[in-house]
Amino acid sequence: MKARKVLGFLLLVGVVAAGGYTLLKPKQPPPILLTNAKAAPLEMGASQLAVFVSIENSGPSDTLLFASAPDAKSAAFSQTFGPLALPSGSTSALAADGVFLKLNDVRGPLDHGRTLPISLTFAKAGTLTTRARIVAFRNQGNAANYGLFGIGDICRVGDGEPAPHIELEASKIETGWTIDILSDDFEFTPELADGPHVPGTGHGHIYVNGLKLGRLYSASTSIGHLPVGQHEIRVTLSTNDHRAYVVGDSPVTASIQIHSD
């Protein structure tokens, strides 16, 4: 009888201890981290801002659903090309040369250095908040006039210069996807990045449904798993000084559709 009482007491102590451990166990941080958030006025004297932010995803694939900003009348993504999918184990960005967040009728002075609270809501990670620091006025280039993402500038290929052309191939692998860029009249030149323009050289930018994944300095790259569904992978070519290549009236870009299941 005594043995039963002792055993019951020990079981009770174990349950209480386990409950206490659960209560005291620190909450795990979300797998998504928002960093380097900036807000740039799009027009001099206007109350419209473009917000750029890096989205580091150390977890499984996710989808950016919507955004909000209490200091603005409205907040919306600049363009929509399908779900803003985040591959697993990746760093994406709301960027000037991709889909970005546009704030309209921001209240208060747009002083340099002021910070604005910004919330991004994800399908799995939930709502995360950061603060975007207002920086200098951002000139808008002609990229959008040629069907390119964002507000960057272009570099029109001159007569007699190499006229780059690219095509994409996608292969499914265990960790996600491999994307190969087949190019003509173009050389990837990481050693010249941020330097002056040299015709026929430069780097690429890769996007998933318009959300920028980063720069490409070689003809092959890999991305992680994507949410279930159809997605557009797009690559554009840029000069060393970060202008999008345009041949005639056509941007040097290629896309491929992949299905994730």
Give your account of this protein's structure.
This is Copper(I)-binding protein. InterPro entries: LpqE-like (IPR007410), PCuAC_sf (IPR036182). It comes from Shimia sagamensis. There is one protein chain. The protein starts with a helix and ends with a strand. The chain is 9% helix and 49% strand. With 261 residues, the protein is mainly β. The chain has 2 domains: 32-134, PCu(A)C copper chaperone (Immunoglobulin-like); 153-260, Sandwich (Immunoglobulin-like). A hairpin with a 2-residue loop joins strand 18 (244-247) and strand 19 (250-251). The longest helix is centred in the first third of the chain and has 23 residues, at 2-24.
The number of distinct β-strands equals 20
Largest sheet, strands/sense/barrel:
9 strands, mixed
CATH superfamily of the largest domain: Immunoglobulins
Compute the average pLDDT: 90
Q: Ranges with pLDDT <50 over ≥5 residues?
A: 6-13
Question: What is Rg?
Answer: 24 Å
Morphology: globular
What is the count of helical runs?
A: 1
The ordered H/E elements are HEEEEEEEEEEEEEEEEEEEE
CATH topology-level fold name of the largest domain: Immunoglobulin-like
Give the count of structural domains. 2
The chain-level structural class is mainly beta
Q: Give the terminus-to-terminus CA distance.
A: 58 Å
Helix content: under 10%
Which CATH-level-2 architecture of the largest domain?
Sandwich
Main CATH class of the largest domain: Mainly Beta
Strand content: over 45%
